[in-house]
Structure formats: structure tokens, C-alpha cells
Amino acid sequence: MELSTSNGQPLQALSDQMAQIVGQIAQSVVAVHGRQRVASSGVIWRDGVVVTAAHTLRRDDGIDVTLPDGSTVAANFAGRDPGTDVAVLKLDGASLPAVATGDASALKPGHLVLAVARLDSLGASADFGVIGGVGGPWRTWRGGQLDAFVRLDGGLYPGFSGAPLADMRGTVVGLCTSALARGAGMVIPASTVTRVADELLAKGRVSRAYVGIGTQQVSLRDTWIDALKLSTDRGLLVVSLARGGPAEQAGVFVGDIVTALDGQPCRDVDDLHAALSTARVGQPLKLDLIRGGARSECTVVVAERPQQHGCR
User: Fold this and answer.
1) In angstroms, rounded to a whole number, what is the distance separating the alpha carbons of residues 59 and 9?
2) Pairing of strands 294-301, 213-219
3) 289 CB contacts (<8 Å, ≥6 apart)?
4) 186 and 246, same domain (yes or no)
5) What is the pTM of this model?
């Protein structure tokens, strides 16, 4: 994307550049009417496909979208993934340009960014800020995997969830959301949005592996570590079981402590998440347990996680 500048006036040049970026991206930004009162924003990700923040859609039917020209059209719900907070809508008969996407993992704290929203038929809105923090792949509290951790320097205005976030080159590095961190705006990286959107368009949901246990990290007693010859000083206490879930069917009990998964130490919930890749669905997973002060083991057949479930 080529941008003009104002010779000899660097601040004016920056201002002009930002306005051009907003104007360019706004051609692909829509207002999504999927809840009461304030609309959310969405962006044309590819021809006829809108992506937005899943938490802003309170219904699956009767969703309307306001286009950049002010007209309103009906949208067909294609699917949502609460884990990554991505939802996909399909538009029939509305041809709008898709945004050019970039790499969120290339961002650094302090980089300038622009969020471009459309709340109603009055036109585009913009918010200017900086990247507050960047990290590697991150699992959300909802169980979804983001390709990078990208935090904004503050919260989001109402209606800016689902808005595209652009860097100073004018490429969209992801979607804004207020649902993944308390008090801070987060960015769903563009690569994550594309991956999730592809799966939602193909089958209407995102598959995740699941064994049906709720856990809490615990420290193991030194006497247990010595007597049971354990290779870890921490484990996961089973505090709940999904009724009829894989773990309950395999004979896991509330009060068991998981110390290893397929022979690898299980010290915290990240180790459990790492063992539950989508590829594990339908495959056996051996759990090493402490039960009643003695070592035990159990083999669980990993299932596909129900769409609305709090257990892993």
C-alpha cells in the first residue's frame, strides 16, 4: 500500500498517513447487528466472508450488517469459536474488498497501531494506540490457542470488538477483542483468524480434544515423591468430572492426582493442554495417578470437546 506524504512536515505527514490507512481499511469494515443496543464491528476477510468477535453475537439468526455505503443486508451465521473469540458470517450479493493481512508476531511493544470500527451508518471510527505487550503462542482462559500474545495499551471503546487492527504499513494484523483479558484490549492475530475461519466455514465449529476433567495444580509431599519415586514435585488434582465424559468412563475419580501423561510429567494445566492436541481425538492417553497415597494409572480415550463445556 503506497501512501503520500507532506514534505517538510513530519507530524502532518504522519497524520495524513494514518487518515489514509483508516480510509483504506474502512472500505472493508462493516457494523454487525448481533446484539441489543451497540453494534459491533466486523471486517471482510475474503469475498463474501465477515469475521467478528464471537462474544458480540448474542444470536445466530436475524443478524444484519451495515455496509460502508450505509446500506444494510442480512448475514448468514457460519459459526463461532468462543475459545479464540472468532465468529464468521457470510454475505450474499455484497461484493466488498477484503483486507490485506500482516503478521502480528512481528509487532513489538511501542509499535503504533490503528483500530478501525464501524458502529452504525454514520461512517468509520478510528482509535490510535500502541502495542502494550507481545509474546509467543498463548492459550486463552476459554481454551483457545492464539498464535501470538498481543496486548493493546488500554481498553477498547464500545463497538470496537471485532474491529481490524492495522499497523503503520496499512496491513491488518488481527482483530480487536475485549473478551480475552480483563481491563485490556487484546488482538486475535490474523493467522489465528484465518485458521479458525477456515475451520468454521468447513464444519461450523472448531474441534478440540477433551478428557472431561476439571483440575487444580497442587504441590506433592516430599514423602510421596520419595516413596513413590515420582519424577515431579507437582501435579493436577482432579476436582470435577464431566458426567459421562471420557475420564469418568475410564475410571478416574475426583481426588486423583495426575502426575504424568503418556509418561511425560504433568506439572500444570499447560502440560495437560499440550497433550490434548486436536490430533489426539479418538486416541488413548495414559494417565499416571496418585490415588489414596499409592500410584495408579488409567487410560482415557480422548474425545472431541463439547461446544459448551468447562472441563478439559
Assistant:
1) 49
2) unpaired
3) 252, 256, 257, 258, 259, 295, 296, 297, 298
4) no
5) 0.80
End-of-domain residue from the set 158, 176, 203:
203
Number of separate domains in the chain:
2
- pLDDT per position as a tens digit, 281-309: 889 999 999 999 999 999 999 998 776 54
Evaluated on CA atoms 89, 94, 95, 100, the torsion sign reads negative
Q: Same domain, yes or no, for 243 and 117?
A: no
CATH classification of the domain holding 227: 2.30.42.10
Domain final position from 174, 203, 232? 203
- Separation CA 305–CA 307 (nearest Å): 6
How many other CB atoms sit within 10 Å of the CB of residue 135? 11
Residue 279 backbone dihedrals phi, psi, to 5 degrees:
-65, -15
Contacts of 305 (CB under 8 A, 6+ apart): 143, 207, 208, 209, 210, 312
Distance in Å from the first CA to the final CA of the chain? 44
Q: What is the largest CA-CA distance in the chain?
A: 77
Whose cell is 472468532? That residue is: 86
Residue 302 C-alpha cell reads as 480422548
Question: pLDDT digits over 69-116, tens only?
Answer: 999 999 999 999 999 999 999 998 778 999 999 999 999 999 999 999
